[in-house]
Amino acid sequence: MNKILKALAILSLVSFFILFMGLAVATRGGSSTNGSQGSTSAGSTCIVTVNGYSYDVTKLQNTHSGGNVFVCGTDNTSIFVSQHGTDYKLITKYKLP
């Protein structure tokens, strides 16, 4: 009986952690420096923020050589910089006005 209670407690904690992390990712965002709303994700559109600017990377999700690494609706600056440094020319064509 004791083992069952411990297993249920662990399962409850893991479930809570997964739920909490999902909510944290879904609600993250911010404002961009160009005055528009920061990162949003609507339907099948994938919009991310990099260095304060919003980019529509929907088409890039399926063609990116590193795979679909985008976390739609969030700031992806650290992901971008860790792989590409500050070579923002790579994503210029995806920048939103």
Automatic annotation (TrEMBL):
Endpoints of the signal sequence: 1-26
Keywords: Signal
InterPro entries: Cyt_B5-like_heme/steroid_sf
SUPFAM superfamilies: Cytochrome b5-like heme/steroid binding domain (SSF55856)
The protein's name in its UniProt record: Cytochrome b5 heme-binding domain-containing protein
Organism: Candidatus Wirthbacteria bacterium CG2_30_54_11
